[in-house]
Structures are given as structure tokens and as C-alpha cells.
Amino acid sequence: MSRRDELLDELIELFLAEGFLDFGVGDLATRLRCSRSTLYLVAGSKEQIVLAAVRGFFRRAAERIEAQVAREPDPGARIAVYLTAVAAELSPASPRFHADLVAYPPAAEIYVDNTRLAARRVQNLVVAGVGAGALRQVDATFVGAAVAQVMAGIESGAIGAATGLDDAAAYRRLADLVMNGLSLAQVGAQV
């Protein structure tokens, strides 16, 4: 692993625990026990360092999530695996990290983009599950759009404000909701 990758890992861990807006480059160098010039291996400015860490967090999380989904043989269970894995990846993120993410527009944009990709992925998982006969027949576009709205509400903090749930807990509840709504056991209960 390169020194840059090591620093990026350490930055991600620090930012998840304590947020990132209150740190200066000197503070980060002190916390990571390195020089400023070493820290600039990650990126050329504090703003770019923050964005590299935020992108790195979401990229690595996506890789781990997709690895879990790939190991699930049941196409009907992949949605729950996906959303539960999202919850697990978000669980180390402190309230401060989430607040900083929302407060810093370039980082918020990364979160919005990742939420959009996640919603599209859920829609694709619904289509695959329905196509395999593992989920009841539903309008996958609608399910995807509905999930996207809930995910956007989680990302913006609206779900947390309305429910008191952190993002990870909200994703676990979303997994329960979606799976209960798409279960083949629900076919007889359709209105």
C-alpha cells in the first residue's frame, strides 16, 4: 500500500469519527503524525484532500457493498443485502461527519451522486429479482423512484429529523420496508 493510500485510509477514519470542516491542514498533519508536504500527497489543498477522502469513502464502501451482493445467490434477497450493506458502511459515520457532508456543497454533491447511483442500483436489483421470479411483479421504475426519494431524504437529513434515526438505521428500515413490500408472500395481500 502506498503512503498516499495509507494517509487516505487514516483521513477517512478521522473524518468519519470527527467530521472534516473544523480541521486545517496543520491540524490534519498533526493528527496523522506527518508533515504538511506528506499530507499533500493525497491532494494539493485542504478542499481537495477532503473531497479525495469523501470520494474514497464512498468508492471503497461501494466496492464492499457490491462484493456482498455478488456473494448472494438469491436474486430476491440481493436488495436486502444491498441496503443492509449500505447501512453497515454508513454506521461508522458520526453525526458530525454527516453534518459536514451536508454543510459542504462539494462533499454534499458527492453524497447526492452516490445516493442517485444507489437508487439506480436498487431499481436494477428489483428488475432482476422480478425477472427471476424471486420478487412479486411490481413496477420497478416506481419502486426505484420511491426508494430514490427515501434515500434522498436520508441523505438530506429529512428522514433523520422526522424519525430520529441516523442514516445507517434509516437504511436498515428501508431494507425492511422494501423487502416486505416486494416479498412473494405479499402477492395474496395485494389491493
TrEMBL record:
Domain of life of the native organism: Bacteria
The record, for SUPFAM superfamilies, names: Homeodomain-like
Q: What InterPro entries would the database entry show?
A: Homeodomain-like_sf (IPR009057), HTH-type_TetR-like_transc_reg (IPR050109), HTH_TetR (IPR001647)
Q: Name one GO molecular function term.
A: transcription cis-regulatory region binding
Under Pfam families, the record lists: TetR_N (PF00440)
Which PANTHER family does this entry report, sorted A to Z? HTH-TYPE TRANSCRIPTIONAL REGULATOR BETI, HTH-TYPE TRANSCRIPTIONAL REGULATOR RUTR
Official protein name in the record = AcrR family transcriptional regulator
Q: Which residues form the HTH tetR-type domain?
A: 7-53
Write the record's keywords in alphabetical order, separated by commas.
Answer: DNA-binding, Transcription, Transcription regulation
